[in-house]
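INFO  loader      accepted 1 record
INFO  loader      residues=101
INFO  predictor   begin
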Amino acid sequence: MTKMKSLNPESLQKASKMLKAMAHPLRVAILNLLSENEKLTVTEIHQALKIEQSTTSHHLGILKDKGVLNSERDGKNSYYFLQNNNLKHIIECLNRCTECN
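INFO  predictor   done
INFO  writer      dumping tokens
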């Protein structure tokens, strides 16, 4: 059996906020897209998911605010990416869990 790392209250609170931010169908789609691509712009995300740019920006802001995503500017573009590559494991797990049904 794997020994679980003990989490302090601050870590548990941060994890809870991150999971709550991720718990939305469009945000899961955004995270899935970003887990397959290193970095994407708002335009690339909204075009790939066929959703409005303002909606995309709104959801990206929530994910960034809760520490799930980060961004960097390059000229006029902001590129979004997963804050921590370990988040890819959560996305992979969600994909496997939803394929079971």
